[in-house]
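> tool_call: predict_assembly(chains=two)
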Amino acid sequence: MVRRVPLAQLKAGDIGVIQDKRLEDDERAMLRAMGLACNATVKLCRVGEPCIVSVLSGDASQGRLGGECCRIGLARSLAERIVVEVMTPRVWS
Amino acid sequence: MQASATTGINEGQERSSPPARVALVGNPNTGKTTLFNRLTGLRHKTSNFPGTTLEARLGRFDVARRVLTRGGGDHYAGQEADSGVGVAAAEVSVGVSGSRVIELIDLPGIYSLELEVLESQVCREALSGRSRLGEPDAVCVVVDATSLSRNLRLAGEALRRRLPTVVAVNMIDLARRRGLAIDTTKLAASLGCAVVLVSARTGEGLAELRAALAEAQVASRTPPGDDEGLFRWADEVFAACASGGDESGADTLTDRLDRAFTHPVLGVGAFALIMGGLFYTIFSLASFPMNAIDWIFTVVGGGIESVMPAGLLRDLLVQGVVGAVGATVIFLPQICLLFFMISLLEDTGYLARAAFVMDRVLRPFGLAGHSFVPLLSSHACALPGIMSCRAVPDPRERLATILVAPFMTCAARLPVYVLLTSLLFPGQPLRAALAFMGCYALGIAAGVGSALLVRRTILRGKSRPMALELPSYKLPSVRTALVTTYDRGLTFIKNAGTNILAICIVLWWLGSFPHVAPPTAALELRERAALVQNDEPAKADLEGQADRLAASHGKAESFLGQIGRTVQPVFAPLGFDWQLTVGVMASFAAREVFVSTMSVVLTGREEAEDEGVFAQLSQSRRTEAGGGAGRLVFDQPTAWSLLVFFVLAMQCLPTLVVTAKESGNVKWALLQLAWMSGVAYAAAFLAYRLALAFGGG
């Protein structure tokens, strides 16, 4: 079952694929350039303020995950406006 | 590679040809600046991009000659086989001239050339030749080997510009430790340009990079022109050329450190400990070179006095020039140590985490987490504090930090605090210490309160929620820290030093002229000294008294003294007489002169730390009817008023100079002066009235 939640609601260790970012244009452009583009795979490292995510290389939807590409700290107010599709282990194992 | 020329690229080039210019671009945290420092050493200069406060660093390095032969491999003079250079199949007919000197321009770190932020705009202008630096002959894109897929997007944007390009894959040592492998030949073929694996930290690949930059060519391929296409292209290139690395991004040590350093309690504790250690180190280490500088300039001044005849030129040299240069150079140890330590700390990756911790504290006041280090630095000296505001990304938050940084109690205020708290609480060290702490708290409160006001009025605007890349934790590079320290020290000497020199000479002149005849009382003392026979101590004492009277009279009758008398009615509501006004006026240029100026005006001696002098200061009386003749100069209400005034007033012309420079407009410095003077005046007035009302004086 596909579960889409705000990034801020993931638990530490959860992996998700960014679907949508309900952000201002300039915020969206900056985060995209930093690595948080739509369809990017992220792992939540720290919940709360700040929300720390690890952007992973590879493609979780194809079952291929690589190492950490970069690590980004986000204010919670930003993390609450980024929607991710949660990847359950069976999808990419 | 198809070599198409038998002649060397460097042949026929005059050494006097202008150097080829190469622009260095890359994401933040790719080690671009470290690479720049390694390539250029100390052969660089720093200025600002026109119309901005963004730094432009230009440096030069030499490139060894290269010889090409037709039909065979390329021979690189002095180069070893398996150098790690992958060169795309391309004609060697178009590229950078074979100049032996290459000029490198370090552009700001950016995530994309297409963003509407100042850094990206500056980079766009630089690459298109619209900046005063002119169009570069080539581009070197620095990418992080451990973050290649994201970095390739910027590389693609740079390649689209169709300038001769070389891609430097930096941090290759770190990538190998993580098990990442990069196929250089495939990467070069995919990008259509030269690719060099380097490690700016260890020096690996630098010679090959220099050689590649000297022969940079326009890429044989052009990445897609639309964003979606570019992102897909970058992912495909990465997938084809890189392999290995941890699966699922597991890095438990980094995760644990991040959780600790950003924890609401542990994080603040760690921050307090680390910053406390940093500033304790700076204060304790800086005192040695500062004392040495003080000694050196005292010796130099004494030397000049002993060899030159008395007169205007000697006074100008000793009190004006030597004094001024000493007053500039004395700041250097603190500035250099501060930037050295902060560079080390930043290189470890810790400061990015600390910015989030402090963001929670400062955000309610319209400031950013990044503002904390400049504000904390300003407790030593506002000059380096304001210079370090460049690290604050948001321009409004940066400007607000610059404007309020001088409210933080700096080291120059301490002698004034010591004098006044000793006068207010003689023999009561606990109360004096509490008053001291109160001064620090008042400065901080005024600073954050002013920041809040400024961010709600003239610098109104939404604060950007923080989004910051957290670089990998690593051991800091001492070499990078040393180069940064050298840069900052030189910038300070060039920018502030010349202004401080001018200010000190003007101050000296105002306090020394016009020369007036010694007062009658001093002449009588000299006559009495001349009559003393066989009693050298008594003779010396009389002559000393005469000298002190003459010095005090001279200061009072100087232009500075006259200004003090003229301006005194303005400060009368704060309880200041004309003598205090002279001290306050003198200290508008530099706070630290207040104590010595008051000492000279009231006692004729400069050594205020001397117990006898201190006793004289505390017992000095006012002399004019308007100031309450006979009252103590430093009565209780006046001492409180002075203390509050010095906590809040802008009394440092060098700081104003740096504010104007760093903010990009002198109007901000004038606003800073006006606001702080107004706040100091109002608060000192209130303190004076309250002290009078509660029975002081």
